[in-house]
Structure prediction request, 149 residues.
Amino acid sequence: MFRTILSVLALLLVACAPDQTSTVIAIHPSAVSKAADIIQAVEDLNTAIGAEVFTVIQLEGYELIEGAAVVRLVERLAGDETVAGRTFHRAHSLDIVIEPETKPRIIAHELCHAAGLEHVEDDSNLMFYAPLRVALAATQREYLLGLVP
Prediction:
């Protein structure tokens, strides 16, 4: 199973090599076990946007990649027990922290936070506090499309 995930990841990395027209999502070594869910979140989000706005790469170690959002895995997030993911805008990095049980739609939600979207009150929207689906409003899609030149 683990080798299958890494094989799928390797294929996607070749097919989705980062360039100037995408937002890079870097999988930290701690999150390799969630690679399939992270890739699914990126695919679902790109489908909802209607363009390849996000791409995935695998970090070999603990390096920082300028402009990349780094997805890290922790056993349990501190604080609210209902939260399965958090995005941290730090001075030199953008970190998305998830738990082992975090679903792809929650990862997609956090990717949108990393890109600058905020919560909305519409419970049919990905940016609702507890999203049930990967659906974005036209203005959100336009904003995300504006991230790429």
Notes: Residues 30 and 73 are 5 Å apart (CA to CA).
